[in-house]
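Two entries, shown back to back:
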Amino acid sequence: MSKKKQPHRKTSPARKKGASSRRAAPRKAPPRLSDRLAATQRMLQALTQAHAEFIVWGEHRALLQRLLALALELTQSDLGFIGEMVSLSEGEPFLRPHAIFPLDWTEALRGYTVSTRPASGGQRSATTLFDAVLGADEPLWLKTPTRILVEGSPAASLPDLSHFLVLPFAVADKPVGRVVLTNRPGGYDSDLIEFLQPLLTTCGTLLHAWRNDEHHRRAEQTLQAQQQQMKKLALVAARTHNAVIITDAAGVIEWVNEGFTRITGYTAEESLHRRPGELLYGPNTDPAVTSAIHQAILSGEGSTAEMINYRKNGEPYWNHADIQPVRDEHGRLVQFVSIENDVTARRSLEQQVAQSAERLQLALESTEDGLWDLDLLTGKLTVSPRWLGLLGYEEGVGETNYRHWREKICHPDDLPEAERRMNQHLLGHSPMYEFEHRLQHRAGAGMWVLSRGKVVSRSEEGRPLRVVGTNSNITSRKQAQERIQAFIRAIPDAIYRMKTDGTFVDYKPSVNTKDLSVLPPAEFLGRKIYDLPELEILFQPTRNAIQQLLQGSPLEIYEYAVETPNGVVHYESRLVYSGGDEVMSIVRNITERKLAEEHQRRQAERLAEQVSHVTRELEARQAQLIQSEKLASLGQMAASIAHELNNPVGYVSSNVSTLATYASLSRRLLEISLQVEKALGAQPPAPVAALLEEAITLREQEHLDEHLADLDEVLADTREGLARIREFVLNLKTFVREESDVPQLADVNKGLRMTLRMLRHEFRERCEVICDFAPLPLLRCFPTQLNQVFMNLLLNAAQAIEQRGQIYVTAQQEETDVVVRIRDTGRGMDARTRARIFTPFFTTKPAGQGTGLGLTICDTIIRRHQGRIEVQSEPGQGTTFTVRLPLFDDEDEDEGPLH
């Protein structure tokens, strides 16, 4: 608990006198809270590390020796030891030392007699110091013991002892050992005993765990020796402490020892011919562990595992199982031997140690600041978990050095000032080292910390030996300050701060280089706005705005214009009350906004002129949508019709094939019948003659020869009809199929032919269709939409022919366009009709026979393809529609007009 570190070494007779004189010095003042916190921090760090190292390595003596040295340092004691209470069945109890400083002085305890009284009070008694240590059931601190002779040796040969402290420690109410400290200047008190309580808990935990480990280690060594000397059943003694299970190669129990019965409660009779898992596994048994054991047994390999098993009475326990295969002289697997041990106590102790370490870790993390401890002699820098966590490293008490901090952690720009301030404090020129600076975060970014430190230990010559301090993360505060500054800098407008009487206090210029201040800042800062003739235009608006703010208005805005050599500049001034007798004014150049408002006004007028046009466009789009919905419904209906037609067409086609087979067989039978007639001759036998005559009569009366000859022609016509039905269904499905939003490469000639086949019934009675299709490149388009255009134009052409006429359809490439022409010999159109044919809802058909949307939709589809549709017509001369569709290069595929 002292802030001055004392190195430990053996006390020579020459130094004992000096030590005695030092103890005679006046008692020091109570340590400060920061020193107590630092000492507690060191103690908790050491205990946490001791727990962790014992769990890893299992070695306790070095850890106890280190903890004793730390306790002597923190309490400023010269002598001490940590001993284990050992009680044998025969003889007196004794102390077995596990940590001692200096060495070999515990026997000297028998050379002292003391008058003792427990810390809780009670009668005093005289006894030897050794007996007092053994009999102390509660903390006991004593003043100077009285020397007596030890085996004839003079009392002068005994070491000097003063202010003797005995601290017993136990585990589960069972005494385990003693911690003894002596020769502390000023003696010992209850605060110090409370400070050392975590040390006592850790010593008890370590010694108790060591005892258990020693016990289990000796048992395991004994078992291993037995396993090496015996085979099969002789491998282990029948009454070993461990449970032994022998199974066959499939894992079925053949034998268990008494240890198995003692641990699990199952007798040998209850266990035979069953698997261990049937007896011992339960709800909390780890399936992964049992699966690994099962896999090892299946593969004939050994395995080791720890898991929760269950006794016969349902009580869970931790079981350590070592399962090894047994093979015969030929290497064949014959058995498994499992040696199992109840390790519940060890597991419980490990859990207690882990919980203790967790509590200590929580105590270390309870402070938000990072702690650091710099040894100025060695340069060693000890840091807390929080210190590491601030810099992005894995939290845990760690050590580094000053050189690493200087070269890798401290920001190079801040290092000179940090070292200057530290040197000022080390020289005594400042009461504390304090500096805001940056550290290098592990992720590469810098972080701001407020570092405070103070010298806590100096040499006798006054030289500083140790500095302890804290690091507070102030990155958020620094970032907030930087954000505020950046926010102010990012405001493009000019900002003025003025008093309520109009005096300018501060000024930030506008980032707009065109906003030149009427006056330089030096000429208006510190002066009232009302005293500057150059700003006369602002006198009254500013006075009115300030008056309104003082009366409670949250914001006042006014605009003004300034004549400049480059024209009139418009400004907007926003004033807010900022507290006290000050207001803030943000002045913005709104010239562009004013120009934009004028531009918007003119734009509004132009937009108003386009409203009617847009309305017409919307109506056309709506009509197209209606038609698209109709086509979608038609597509669904056509798909259903096609499906319904395909089924009967399929079995009709199958039946026709069957009829053809039957006809072939009938024809063959008739031929054989004729051959039979010829073979029988003119005078067949009487019974046969009657039947033969009947067959000849039937063949002649029913004209069977003619029927069989006509049957082939009938079947051929039927097959042709079925083929035409299939073709129609296929064309119908293709024509009305749902189309994606992505254009495709399509053959325009193929689309025209398919559309003509679909309309064949429309042309049969009205006209003759004459086609001339030149070879065309593939066109990137929406094929279904183009088919819709061709169908509308062909239907219009057919309906325009009043008596039988002709329709000419041509397709060819002209430069970079695909051109389709559809010409009819119908009645034609006059100029007035031609001018309105693409207008929505215009039609020349009788009411109820047309919607007036067909050609409108055609025009919309062709314009979507970046093409155009033209019409030539005269009354009585027929009509020609020309569709021009542009070809696009492949490199324009992703960014072409159709997208």
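entry 2 starts here
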Amino acid sequence: MSDIIQLLPDSVANQIAAGEVVQRPASAVKELLENAIDAGANKIQLIVKDAGKALIQVIDNGCGMSITDARMCFERHATSKVRKAEDLFAIRTMGFRGEAMASIAAIAQVEMKTRRHEDEVGTLIEIEGATFIKQEPVAAAEGTSISIKNLFYNTPARRNFLKSNPAEMRHIIDEFQRVAMANPAIGFSLHHDGVEIYRLPASALKQRIVHLFGNNYNQRLIPVEEDTSIINLKGFIGKPEFAKKTRGEQFFFVNNRFIKDPYLNHAVNRAYEELLPDDNFPLYVLFIDIDPAKIDVNVHPTKTEIKYLDEKSIYAILHSAVKRSLGRFNISPTIDFDQETGFSSMITHKAPEEIVPPSISFNPDFNPFAGDKPAPRDSSYSQDTSYASFSKSYGSGGGKMPTSTKNWGSLYEIANHSPAQQSALELAGTEADDQFVPVQKQLMQLHNRYIISQIKSGLMLIDQQSAHERVLYERFILHLEDRKGASQQSLFPQTVTLSPNDYELAKSLLEDIKSLGFEVREFGKNTLVIEGIPVDLGSNNINETQLFEHLIEGFKNSQQELKLDKRDALARSMARNSAIKSGTVLGQVEMNMLIEQLFACKTPNFSISGKPVIQTIGLTELDKKFDK
């Protein structure tokens, strides 16, 4: 039997390596930007077309390369940053493995122009699928320009796995932000399909964060700084009131290299644990400077994981530094034992002789038995007013509530329910003969959170927020399916400016957002104009800008945590942000309408998060509690 083990050709080995190093266009962007930084550039341009699928071009004014170096950089394991094994424990550069350029050249059409500062003529190299096509002298600017065209053109299966252009562009923006944030002294620019997304001048770290995320971040940042014999820590953390329900604004940099570390992330979250709910995530941009001999960055091909020699000490330093910054800038609550402010509002600065005691005026000739009795107040007035307010604030689905509610209880007779409603009542634990007693005061609100209703077998408890979320969710799903969400024009259109990443996401969702009832159009750089909101939300106390921002944030959260379908995630986000909250006072008619809409839903018993909406307590259970 002949030998069966053989060495792979370089072209095949490079394609295999590309599967680890270059997972999507954003991976190639990261490698090229880091090479430009290692070349000593102070100005870097990134040009992208078709979300990196057609073109990724990085232009820098770094040191450039000689003719020999230009050819050698595409060889596997060719690098200028490591000479011997000991160098792996003294790495200060971004790249060192020598695999990126060879891997990219194996799966794309690459063109590179480079010239050193001392040379008069540059070098042009063209490669397709790891095969050299051309190498010749050419006129070129100082530095290097690399163009990657038709990424994954020779691996169609890999290209088919790429996401939509907006999704891939969001990943590219993420990588661009990380590199730009780690190097504020370098000027960056980003263009996509001829549109400028970023132009970042060289600046301090705080200004770079503001340029990347928006001017409103200027007031959100708290500085952090700590120098120890183990690490030097600096950066910024966000104020607790600006924390978000989705991850994405958490950045750790070790020796200016972006990393992902759940252990260190836990140290920061612990510092916020008494200031934030469990499902909120604060902003932080923290830089750790540490001796390279005490870490190992050669853990993963993407170099986003690091092993530490003394990670427990780093954890303790990080936690205490963040905690101290929160306290130093009066973010954490404090108690002043030297002053009692409970009676401060009762203290007056008037002289005692100027204080006039209160008096009561009355008519001594008034006779309550004289004349006709006043007409009884029409109780339907307050109910109609309450219903009108509820309809505008929370949506009634277009129906009208009759002014008289004397036959209201008949709506809940089992005989008049549709099959879906009958099954809903059975699942809720009610018996076939249970019905709501037609008494006007049968509904009661408990702690402004739950609605209590009497049924023949006992009591029914309904979570008002979860119930309204369920009602709105099914309504929004219907709008997304039939594309007929009604819109209510705003008197004054509102503009909302998003981060470039969120703007790309909003553009990809624009058609579905309009189906919900929003009237939205693009308006300049990273800005949208909201001209109308869904009729279901009404017009009372609606902040269009805040609602839209929460809609995008909730959508990201649903997709990250639950991996939901795009429309389902959008409907969930909209329902959560639009529903009445626990603590909202409801009138009788408002509670009646909410229950009526709930039992008209397909799945009234469970909230959109899968938790129960309805609980029943039978008379037998109540009797046991009283030892009967």
